[in-house]
Amino acid sequence: xxxxxxxxxxxxxxxxxxxxxFAIGAAGYVAYKQFKGEPVISGLPGLGHKTPxxxxxxxxxxxxxxxxxxxxxxPLAIMVENYTAARPQIGLDNASIIYEAITEGGITRYMAIYxxxxxxxVGPVRSLRTFFLDWTWSYNAxxxxxxxxxxxxxxxxxxxxxDLDQFALGEKAYWREPQAGKAIEHTMFTSTQKxxxxxxxxxxDMKANFESFKFLDPKKxxxxxxxxxxxxxxxxxxxxxxSYQYDPINNNYVRxxxxxxxxxxxxxxxxxxxxxxxxxxxxxxGFTRINEDSxxxxxxxxxxxxxxxxxxKIDAIWKKVSLKDxxxxxxxxTGEEIEFLPGQFWYEIVPPDVFDKVKIxxxxxxx
Length: 367
Description:
The chain is of the alpha+beta class. It has helices spanning 6-36, 68-71, 130-136, 150-159, 166-169, 192-201, 352-355, and strands at residues 56-58, 65-67, 76-81, 97-102, 108-114, 142-145, 162-165, 174-176, 188-190, 214-215, 228-234, 241-247, 252-257, 260-261, 275-280, 283-287, 293-297, 301-309, 312-320, 328-331, 339-340, 345-350, 359-363.
């Protein structure tokens, strides 16, 4: 009668358990990467395949550290509504850069630009305007939106914009969440994962290709804990009054909208950018070829700006040489290009009448 050697039996059991453990670990790894929207590296660790790297590097959008996989992911711009009925928004806290500008009637709209961070839901998504299209070219960004004024849509194809319009993609990347008492135009949402997947299916280049800002070393940036700074921007009515309060502990700016703290609807996270750019831009009223009310902005050229970070205020000049060049900011005193702190950016794009009324109060004490 053949009997299995007890020692050999233990070895066989150990190998089976080891393989089973690897299988569970691999399944968990795949599920985690899919949840994070990151590509899966096939194969089991230690069996001739590369393991996922834990190394990080500065991403070019906002300068913060990100995994090597996500740091150079192609920027994605999404138009987000700011009408009072659409608040609070979802997904702005994970954007690297946010632009805020008046569209019509004193109502502002956001363009949120994503890179290393994903957002499972973003919105409400609204339509495109020509000036937002101008700014996307600073990043050669994918363009997520729900239609747009005809003058903006007329430019998308001829300019070769990397378009991800809801009108074309439909339920593949966008969905509505109807609510009782809320107009249908305030109910459109998307996700960064869905839009990145749609971009990949269109054959768009998934790697970033734009000129980055220059960033300071945050470890060498000294924060005066006694610094107090408040910024007030009145775009139009009290419903579109924006304020920031500098937080020296976290070295960012706590944002309020219409007198209330501005929080993300899904996460409850307080919106608090690290860098604020108040950019003076002339705008002009007009009509599109189908008689829509429309504004055009002088986004190319140069003008005044105010840059704020770390409780500091810098009087600046912005310059954008051509449509597809990056808007750059220069110290008005030294003439040198401004370096920013790694962290979220918030652009406040304002016409002259709003710029003249911006209030910034800064005080500092060594405590």
